[in-house]
Amino acid sequence: MALLHAPDRLPSDIEDMLLRKIWFAGAAMILVVSGGIAIAESRLDAAAVKSEDGKYLDKEGNPTFKVAADGTVDWYTYSGYRRYHSECHVCHGPDGMGSTYAPALTDSLKTMSYSDFMAVVASGRQNGNSVMPALGDNPNVACYMDDLYIYLRARADDAVGRMRPAKKEDKPEAYTQAENSCMGKK
Amino acid sequence: MRKVLLATLGSIAVLTAGGALANDELIKMAQNPKDWVMPAGDYANTRYSKLNQITAANVGKLQVAWTFSTGVLRGHEGGPLIIGNMMYVHTPFPNKVYALDLSKDNAIVWKYEPKQDPNVIPVMCCDTVNRGVAYGDGKIFLHQADTTLVALDAKTGKVAWSVKNGDPGKGATGTSSPLVVKDKVLIGISGGEFGVQCHVTAYDLKSGKQVWRAFSEGPDDQIMVDPVKTTELGKPVGKDSSLKTWQGDQWKIGGGCTWGWLSYDPGLNMVYYGSGNPSTWNPKQRPGDNKWSMTIFARDVDSGMAKWVYQMTPHDEWDYDGVNEMILSDQQIGNAQRKLLTHFDRNGLGYTLDRDTGELLVAEKYDPTVNWTTGVDMNKSSPTYGRPKVVDQYSTEKGGEDKNTKGVCPAALGTKDQQPAAYSPDTQLFYVPTNHVCMDYEPFKVSYTAGQPYVGATLSMYPPPGASHMGNFIAWDNKTGKIVWSNKEQFSVWSGALATAGGVVFYGTLEGYLKAVDAKTGKELYKFRTPSGIIGNVTTYENGGRQYIAVLSGVGGWAGIGLAAGLTDPTDGLGAVGGYAALSNYTALGGSLTVFALPQ
User: Fold this and answer.
1) Which residues of A touch B94 (CB under 8 A)?
2) ipTM for the predicted complex
């Protein structure tokens, strides 16, 4: 797949506008049900407005997911699914659903900002006997921070369900280069 | 030289006489069915009690006699020890130990709570579980999460000695129960998901000084294997039997962890245990058989040297740790009386071996859905004798990195995990708590960083196609390798079983039921819903003329990870949560001990 450049993709912008309207409608319904403003805002914010080398960004410039009408997910969401289930799921449960002793990230990511997520994953935190380890030195995590964030954001927004995403965009060339250099591969 | 050796041996015999007495004390105590002096009930790990006040005829009238809250959340594995009027109850991290006086309204006589660095919590792969304390020489031995092995005065709880068994900074943790044998305390270690080079270590009972340490992989001196005298399936293992099966120095981060149970045969002077998965979970990254991961070890308890080994799953591709308990029984096969070792492996095969020689007698599936192998090559003249025949379709090695191998049964949880089975000499049947779960497994490349997870595979788990239940409780004939009866359970059975002379077998369920079934038929005779899901092991004892049944509840452990959220049904397609109800709909956290007895 060719790399996408946002300025060249007017039709996609229109698509996003349409999407945003749908999000509004969805958000309003959720407001009625849950009364939770944070959830609604998060849903609004998650819409992809542009893409850089296969990574989608929201209007704040934070990484986000992209799920096409046929269920095809962006590469980061798919990669995040795999990395999550290798590094995180033994505590946080399958598909970000939580375990008997670690929080469900499908909930946490509804309110947690991108920068807070990065800080907690890199530096860890402790709340009594509940301990999140610092994973900043672990290349299997550190090299895939955006992948994990994007996957979990998609889960928190119900944009992807449980289990492995069935269809995915190809691995972007720029991603492969960045991954190899981060993981120290030749 | 020989004279010097003889002289030395003579003096050792004198020195160890005291230790031998401690051993005799434990053997004698284990024969008193009123007590429960070691985690598995006896050295043979049978989890069988001669108590027979509670019978198949009256168990239906069982009532709760008393309960005790541990004050700790998270997964409660293992069970209490009972010695005379004292009961010793342990908890998951922070690894409290309570000593209760059963003659004084179960009052707390002493409580021990170690100060441990909480940073050990996230390096425990599968919850902060602990499988219980051991007793010997007037002391209670506890293996803390931070790998400290501590000896507590059984009367006062005061620390007699403590020793560090590993480095949690590198991902080594303590979850397993010690075993006191002769003048030694034996203990394994956890950390297979962190690339720890795991070992079993013997410490001196009196001082805590290290006597021997045997690694699961490495040079011959480190693994305490004699190239000529140590055999596998009757043949000497040869020089560098482990090193030859690893690429470069990968054995240094090779796993083979020893977090399961230990058993002991006083007659043969041998201790038995299994080693866990080779690290990482990505088989492509570690070519070779990865010996001696996934191996049954038979070691001389005094010297630590291995007499025989048997690797069940060479070059593991599915995380089928070999750590489950080795149950020792003396049974007649054909016309011969045999000293047997029976083992229900994570890989879904039930093994029966001669525990003296290591001869393989039976290797059969104890869940019919097991599909990664067509069985073990039992032809003694075959070059692949003793090896499982791997089905290509379910080989994650064949599939390779970044390929999702689907529909492998059992899941990494194994057909059974650490939850120990029981053996009744009355029925000559084994009572086995099992998982009935399959998986998709995708290996990929990971890099090793000390103290960080070193996993390298993505898994998803689900019930076998067409099944609506995720566990079975079965009765197994180890001579023929056949299931005699099988009870379905909605969730994996993650609780250790208890068999009794009353003809009743007990186990717990993840919803929190304590269940009693008929030992002959499996018919359910009694059930009671305890406060939380049960992953503990059922225990029995007698006090004041009454037989009691005790079990820890407190959901968690690996079962609490995979099942808390509910498993998904792959046939339901993307995004659908299958028809399999989540465990969290049935139970919540909280550790407590529930004790049952017949009405007076």
Assistant:
1) 129
2) 0.70
